[in-house]
Amino acid sequence: MPREMTGAQIVVQALKDQGVDTVFGYPGGAVLPIYDEIFKQNDIKHILVRHEQGATHAAEGYARSTGKPGVVLVTSGPGATNAVTGLTDALMDSIPMIVLTGQVPTFLIGSDGFQEADTVGITRPCTKHNWLVKETDHLADTLHQAFHVAMAGRPGPVLVDIPKDVQFATGMYNSPEEAEELPYNPRREPEDDAVMAMVEMIETAERPILYTGGGVINSGDRASALLRELAEETGFPVTSTLMGLGCYPASGKLWLGMLGMHGMYEANMAMHGCDAMFCIGARFDDRITGRLDAFSPGSKKAHIDIDPSSINKNVHVDVPILGDVAETLERVLAKWRARGAQTRRDRLAGWWTQIEAWKAIKCLTYKPSKSVIKPQYALERLEALTRGRDRYITTEVGQHQMWAAQFLRFDEPKRWMTSGGLGTMGYGVPASIGVQIAHPEALVINVAGEASFMMTMQELSCAVQYMAPVKQFILNNERLGMVRQWQQLLHGERYSHSYSEALPDFVKMAEAFGCKGIRCTDPADLDDAIQEMLDYDGPVIFDCLVEKHENCFPMIPSGKAHNEMLLGEASTEGAIDVSGSVLV
Amino acid sequence: MNALNIPQGSTAHSAYSLRPTLPEGEERRTLAVLVRNEAGVLARVIGLFSGRGYNIESLTVSETDHASRRSRITVVTTGEPAIIEQIKAQLSRMVVVIDVHDLTMEGPSVERELALIKVACTGEARVEALRMSQVFRASVVDTTLKSFVFELTGAPDKIDAFVELMAPLGLVDVSRTGVAAIKRGPDPM
Ligand SMILES: Cc1cc2nc3c(=O)[nH]c(=O)nc-3n(C[C@H](O)[C@H](O)[C@H](O)COP(=O)(O)OP(=O)(O)OC[C@H]3O[C@@H](n4cnc5c(N)ncnc54)[C@H](O)[C@@H]3O)c2cc1C
Ligand SMILES: Cc1ncc(C[n+]2csc(CCOP(=O)(O)OP(=O)(O)O)c2C)c(N)n1
User: Which residues form the Thiamine pyrophosphate enzyme central domain (chain A) (predicted)?
Assistant: First the structure.
């Protein structure tokens, strides 16, 4: 039965009824009534961040590692504007998130009131949808609809802006079942014809590849399980985007590693040379395609995606399949099995011989060192010493992020949280906290660069407050490494402002925050130091001083095709030409 | 442009068409977008076009079903066919959008626009302006000794042509509604 409540009570009740257990937030004048209701209850845990951007990334980490939406509560004006980066990040990476913002009272809207900002206007392009609620009677329905929109179809962030008078006034509360439904129901089941076309492609493919992405993770654990069945039963090679890592196990025998700009040689060569490409929940991002007119020129392409605007956006596909990954794979597998589970086994063997030859190049080879810690070595050791544990990895943005994608191995979905589409430095620290809050017993490590780390490191104070034992594993090259690499390749080694010249002492800083600080400079000490980090029951800042001028390879230079990849310490002179240099 | 070489996908039905020809490979399409009329809906649609760099040649909007609070937006846009497909996909995935129809591609449709055209002139020019307005079946909705305001309804090309003819006669101002369009025949949209 609908019940009368204040707007603030409605907010808390709606969150409870939506199954929310955690809210990441920061209070202020325009949300005080809601904070008052939060104070009076114990079902929902509120995590006090140190900056609203931190709340959004923490919520993203929570969401990506659980499959549930992340919830954020912030005040009007600066609280809302500080949330914009996280909203945009979540939109780009298809992360479900509900951001609740306070707003000045309705009668002050438009008057340049204290801490007034046009929040719905500012966030319209960086949300899937947003609402300004002007009447308490509409609040419950809107909140339930917001959860629906965040999760339905391609997931994404939504925002509900709630003026303070609406929080104080009373109105009717509807439960999720009673609430008015929003007629927004993206299609999940694929068309039979499209399924059939994909089955035929499977049966006739001679040089196939499964190009999988974040959509498999979005679709849920069943999608990953079905993908594994499809791969094992067909024997097709599998590659993933940065966002898809873990949807197929890195220990699986069909795994080629990540593809794209900093992806594996074998994955990119297989994409280039395949005759049948099965894109499953990925979006042909420019980090993947390289030069569009030279992208996989000889292949027939199928694309499973729940978002019609992802299909045929960058690359024309022959078999578009609009639907959810799990729903589609289920039908494809059933149909294919019913028709005798045929593949061109005769041809696949030759394809695999070719792939093995590409693998033999060993594209991740780097020059080892006994005197300095190579970043790749640090990650190899981190991988070796954490293998077999239920381990969640977040990253910042830069070279360390790419090395983490190359050297850490994921066997399960939802264990890898990174800012892919927006590439937000500062994502990792709060995301690691969000993950840890969702999985208190798990090992959560943020692989960071020192520059990214400094963008949101104040959140360590939050980690300490909630006893979230996150490990901050900083590959400290004292450089904006990724920027420096591009300056080396593109700008004649003129390293304009890519040094971090006045870095803090991270060990002392750790102590000042109440964390443990560990510094390691010698490869010989690395294993012990990592073990010390893993054994410590609490947040750690691990300052790993690494080679300063290491470049991240392999690399497809901007504007080049997959088969023009740079390997190892290859000559990078003139690797990017004029047309490539305008690309980012 | 000549009536004989109007490309497919063009809204031009008239030999009077004065619109510049589109760049090679681009087409002009009229889209009918049915939306739920909630706050900010127009800003959302316009923001989609400006944010993604799509063209808007004309855009009209009005609530067409007051009981269920539905509005109809008519957008005339130009672009390569793949971009137009992208525009339709981007529109159709918006939460406020109920339906998107490509009127140019989905069989014959009617397009009309209303224009108010102010012309200030005396003497021979005044007579000529009035004569032209009769040829175009424009009506005079305001008149002074020195001016007329003509109301003209028709396809955009017809209005273009009339405005062009008024220019040397003392054209002062033009106000146009933008295109409203509807499918021919008994089916909806
Ligand atoms: C410094 C840097 C370097 C990078 N280099 C690389 C690189 O070398 N290689 C690389 O791969 N990436 C790289 N990236 C990341 C890249 O920018 C993109 O974020 C990434 O490639 C996109 O991954 P995706 O295609 O899996 O799509 P996502 O962004 O994960 O999108 C998911 C797709 O799946 C669809 N989808 C969602 N849910 C479902 C569902 N239930 N069913 C069906 N479909 C669904 C969505 O509509 C969307 O089209 C880099 C990023 C940074 C910051
Ligand atoms: C918020 C933000 N600002 C700027 C950039 C551009 N950028 C990309 S990588 C990078 C350098 C990152 O340095 P660091 O965190 O130390 O990582 P490294 O590349 O050295 O591993 C910069 C500045 C970005 N991605 N995000």
Answer: 197-331
